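User: Before I run my own analysis I want an independent prediction to cross-check against. Here's the chain; please return only the structure tokens and, at the end, one sentence I can use as a sanity check.
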Amino acid sequence: ELTITGVGSVEHAGPADLAPVDSARFLPVAHASRAGAFLVRTGFEGEFDRPTISCAEPLRALNRVIEHLGLLPRDPEPGVDPSARVEGAELGPDVHIGPNVVAEPGAAIGRGTILRAHCVIEPGAIIGAGCHLDPGVVVHTGVAIGDRVRIGANSVLGRPGFAYVPTPDGPEHIHHLGRVVIGDDTHIGAGCAIDRARFGETRLGVQVKLDNHVHIGHNCIVGDRTVIAAQVGLAGGARIGSDCLVGGQAGFSDRAAVGDHSQVGARASVMRVHPGGCRLWGTPARDKNEHLRELAALKRLGKERKPK
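Assistant: Structure tokens:
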């Protein structure tokens, strides 16, 4: 008899909303919630006096509910805004080109891709099918973007890398002739910069997820399904393996690397090559347990030296 028209957190959901409960720590709050029903992790069914739907992954299932209820913003209709400049660019079927977009001759844009207002796509850049570029994204020459890639506002892909050689007349910038390659289903946040390789490629694998304000330097490689939090910086030639997690504000020096299935803590400074499966914390980055032992030793030392 219950009709669900929306979703919400256990704190803010109303009588017509479905709220997710994926952890026991939310049970006390959920009991006081006004939610009409709960989407709960399997095993929590008997905890509530209201309707529940149980599943193994409530947060993932909530995505399907949101989509079914039509709560996401709708994509714009296909078409080219009159203010856009796209003469000479190759446009696939059903693309949306927003106001003041510039797609220069020789650029290629795949089927169903959406370019929001003020995007700039330079000659020779390739954008796959089903991509979504938010306002102000710049895609330079030599960038190849796969299918279903999402790029946040004001991100820049393919600008020459940051490399200079000292001369008597001051630092001289080194030319970069390489490419940037972005794998399918990768998401790039707002305000990110992914630099062109000097030679060869700067490459992000498939299903890579970058938070806002991430910098990927020239010739860096990021493996498949790796997730990188905000304000992380990779210097030229740094490498991160597949299925890695990198915390906010972590930094990688040039040619530093971590292997597959690694975790790098927030604000860690990776300065050398580490094997796969490592867990790194601190500056310079080292094994998490070693770092914690050092912190404990410093704390004990501080207590011992404290004036009586």
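Sanity check: The first helix runs from residue 27 to 31.
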